[in-house]
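Q&A log
Question type: sequence-to-structure
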Amino acid sequence: MSDAPVPPSLVRLATSLNQYTCGSIDSANKLTFSKSSIPPSLVRLATSLNQYTCGSIDSANKLTFSKSFSSAGMHHPSTASLLRALDAGRVDLATSLTSGDARGSKANALRYLPLIRRLLMSCEVQPDTAVLDERLSFMWRGALEGDGPGGERGKVRSSQALMYEVTMAVASAAVASAALGCEASQRGDFVEATKSFKEAADIMNHLHSEHLPQWVSLGSTSASSDLPIECTAGGCKAYESIFRAHAQQMAVAKALEGATVNYSLSAKLCAGVKEQVEDFVRVLRSEGAVHYCRLPASYLKYVAFQTALQDSLSLYFVSRASWSKGQYGLALAQLYSARSLLSVRASVTSPGIPEDVESSRSALNVLLPDLNSLRSHCDALAASWKRDVDTVYFDKIPETFPASSRPKGVKMVKVDRWAHADPGDLEPAPLSVKAPDPPPAGGGGGGGGG
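Response status: OK
Response body:
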């Protein structure tokens, strides 16, 4: 056979192709793949706080240690110096508490604390010579109750026990730390806010686990119902829990600042906040029911708001995590549940946001614009996901989802022993009743007659 040349036409036919063109996506803007960012309103709500303010010392100028211990201590130079320092320190603390200066109140409480601890120890080791010229009556208005005028502050409660004065000084440092946490949160300094709330929790832990049991062991005769909530073990245990919750709220905000959000971790953190707020209510109802009834009504509404909000946020974040894992139907069911918790509750025993949020007379009303913004965000995200599920993924949306798909709470803020828990190397100040001066020589007496 001869090798005939291959005609060009054959080559062209063998390599002939159909011209392919790209297709198109219709209504591209209507289809999303979970790229919605975290709205600022969510961050603001996640970090919403009750504004803590310090208590106060009532009639501070009417009590002076130097007068009360005049006979027992003012003739000892070291004791006289301690008593004068106590008088000045108490006035400084009272002034800063009354002015609402949280930083100054904390500093003055910490300066006053070793002084009053030293006097307490002096009286404990020298009970027979700790004689008073004037009765001591320590009068304090607690920071956390609301049975006083206006329903936002506690009544003035008094005790003659030095341990009461020590306790309220320690509690003042705790509430001042919480107030500083609120200030840092308002500045957006969530790291500093976390530290302040953690210290407040550490102090409350010290009160209920170390200090107050010691007061009981010394034979306290004061009924807990006659004292502010800061002087009860159950009250301090409860506030340790809610201050830890506040610290974790700040940690959630910090986690949401990054370019990428760990949805699973955020869901667990919010669930942990909710559990700690619930612990606050449970402990106080079981171990301090009298004081629970004294809490300001506005604070109880805030607690109810946080319980519903943090439950909703945990479901919101877990729904985002489920969507990113390709569990589209489950994610939508979880998002629906999260959105339902943002609605106003049907009754005080129903899940949802307290109805007070819609009242202009309520402190919660200031949160309503952000709450409505978050509701709108959830509604828009749910509508977007529903279109994707119906037209792209064809995943079944369950009517209910198993408990195992709900986030388990994580409590990342650990309580440490308070740095000022130990009184340090204190030496008792000498106390003794000064002996009367001898009569002048040759002053008297009858003699014999003559």
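Response note: Residues 190-217 form the longest helix (28 residues).
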